[in-house]
Write a structure and sequence with these properties.
A hairpin with a 4-residue loop joins strand 9 (235-239) and strand 10 (244-248). The protein is built from six helices and 21 strands. It has four domains: 21-136, Hepatocyte Growth Factor (3-Layer(bba) Sandwich), CATH 3.50.4; 145-160 and 174-194 and 204-275, Hepatocyte Growth Factor, CATH 3.50.4; 277-370, Hepatocyte Growth Factor, CATH 3.50.4.10; 377-414, no CATH class. It is globular. Helices cover 18% and strands 32% of the residues.
Amino acid sequence: MLKNVVFFFILSIFTVIEVQSSLQCFNVHSSHAISNSDPVAELFHVTAGDCLNYCIYESAKKGDGCVSVVFHRKFNTCQLYGHDGTYNGAEVVYLEDHEFYIRSSWEGPCQDPIQPVRGYKQKPNFEIFAFPNSPIPSESEFENLLQQQLEEEENIYEFATTTVSSVPKSLATFKNPTHAYKCSKGETLQYFLVYSALLSTKQLPQRLNGVDRQSCLMYCNQNRNAIGENVPCYSLNYEPNEEICEMYGKQNREQKTWAQLEIGGQHVFADKFCVKAKRDCPLETLYPVYLQKQITSDVISHIPGLNSKVACLAECIDNRSCEAITYKTGMCVLHSVSPSKNEVVLSKGSEQTMVIENGCHTSSRLETTTTFTPSESSWEEWSLCQYGSKGRRMRVRQRECNDDCDEDLQMEEC
């Protein structure tokens, strides 16, 4: 028995090493795939690592050289190709839920174990470093992108999503200086909420299906997955049409705590942050973010020199008239109007400018209009979706209730 345990432990170590070594052999481009071409192989019920390993270590043994891989995140399938997406009418196209891996090395651990009998559909380019042909930007655009990456001090060794695609959906970086899943004493846990945005990351999420956004946030609040296990939740993606909740742990954001976001679509991105303000604010309050926007009217005050959006928000929270801020590094402007009341106040800003609504102001306004009878106490938080009723997943919440109270237990389907 002990020998078996040791064997599987050693096997798992070699598997991890093999996956890591295969990753260094590819450049990855999120939300792209190859069209108008038949693959040399197709794998089902696999991880992206399995596909990359097969491309390097197995495909040549089967007779076909592998140059690129398209992985479908949603269905865990992949297609292997003997070319880079430009061979014989093939195209590299934008496609959600797909990842396009293009082989960048054939040396050392990246070399084929044997020479493929049928060779490659297209002679490998041993200096591949980006998208082939049409998706490549102009020289000036490429220089601008490179300069932007240098300014943001991106870690070049991370598999970050590239901005070379010319599709309408663009990428944006979002900086959260208090990237955490729980806060220190004296701080309050809150959420940045970015609509039509999706966290772009190589990290595998804790996934929940068939939950509404409120339930998704609840799981993240409690740092628990679908089966009740403790899992630190730092941020999440929520897809409302399919009701898919994806919770993520700590990201590799050491370099200025940047998060990479894909802009467009129906997704909602939520990111936890910690704020310390003089004024009390409810836990897990939501602060809607409008990237690349600004407000130029209804200015309360201008606070120069602030290099943190959280510090700027704290100033807004402590000002009872402040409903939103316009922020970029070194500039903090407080406003007495918010986009949720009047969207017309929003105007186009620079890439670094954003508007953030004061969710605490909205929460306080709602609290003042809500009344409770003395016999009623506040409801507890909803439970996790672990209660079963005729095969359906349910959740419950309760409160202390006197005789003249209507109910002390509520139940609803997840």
